[in-house]
Automatic annotation (TrEMBL):
Single GO MF descriptor: DNA binding
Biological process (GO), any one: negative regulation of DNA-templated transcription
Organism, as annotated: Pseudomonas guineae
Keywords: DNA-binding
Pfam families cross-referenced by the UniProt entry: TetR_C_3, TetR_N
Superkingdom of origin: Bacteria
Residue span(s) of domain HTH tetR-type: 10-70
Protein name: Transcriptional regulator, TetR family
InterPro entries the record matches: Homeodomain-like_sf, HTH-type_TetR-like_transc_reg, HTH_TetR, Tet_transcr_reg_TetR-rel_C_sf, Tscrpt_reg_YcdC_C
Residue range(s) of DNA binding per entry: 33-52
Length: 206
């Protein structure tokens, strides 16, 4: 019985977070009401308040959930040592989430553009040490002459910019694709192109 209740809670929280991502992306934090999210989630408003007492609490939960998803995408830095495997895996994971959760990326971008007013020091605590560990691995590849000399932080920024572009600027991508979303084939070609350009830029063949 306890496990059943835990599963119901997990599903409801996941449903609310995904609905909130979409509404916050479309209306912004200021323009969003809890009622809007309840409608999107197809749940009574009272259910939202059962799990999240305020809009700010829910907004922060959306941001922290996104950060955890992106940290999961980067587990390849810990799982593998080959720079080609690590970066190819990471780029594909980031691209896949740009396609499957574009609203989340837009919410994150908007928060960062405005100086992380809701995350505050939580961003330092959650992001700084995580990013420095990734930079250290890249720096070790450079020192071992496994890749060309690059600034580790700049390489990470290039990957983030290239992959999240497809989410943050999805409307522009659609306009330039004859007002259509990218097909499966087009998206796969985009993944391969981003991967190829980045790997070749650090002296690796895709």
């Amino acid at each position: 019985m306890a496990n059943h209740k835990i599963e119901i809670r997990r599903r409801n929280v996941e449903k609310i977070l995904l609905a909130a991502e979409k509404v916050f992306a479309e209306k912004g934090h200021g323009g969003t009401a809890m009622g809007d999210i309840a409608v999107e989630a197809e749940l009574p408003r009272s259910n939202l308040h059962y799990y999240f007492s305020t809009k700010d609490e829910l907004y922060r939960a959306v941001l922290l959930d996104l950060l955890e998803v992106w940290k999961q995408d980067a587990l390849c830095f810990e799982m593998y040592d080959d720079p080609r495997v690590v970066l190819s895996t990471y780029i594909r994971a980031k691209m896949n989430h740009s396609r499957s959760r574009p609203h989340g990326s837009k919410v994150w971008a908007n928060e960062i553009i405005h100086g992380a007013p809701m995350l505050g020091t939580t961003l330092d605590d959650s992001l700084y040490s995580w990013a420095k560990m990734k930079e250290a691995k890249i720096r070790q590849w450079v020192e071992d002459k496994r890749i060309l000399a690059v600034e580790p932080s700049a390489l990470l920024y290039m990957i983030w910019a290239s992959t999240q572009h497809y989410a943050d600027f999805s409307h522009q991508v659609g306009v330039l694709n004859d007002h259509r979303a990218l097909s499966e084939l087009q998206y796969e070609r985009a993944v391969q192109t981003v991967t190829s350009v980045i790997l070749r830029g650090i002296g690796l063949e895709p």
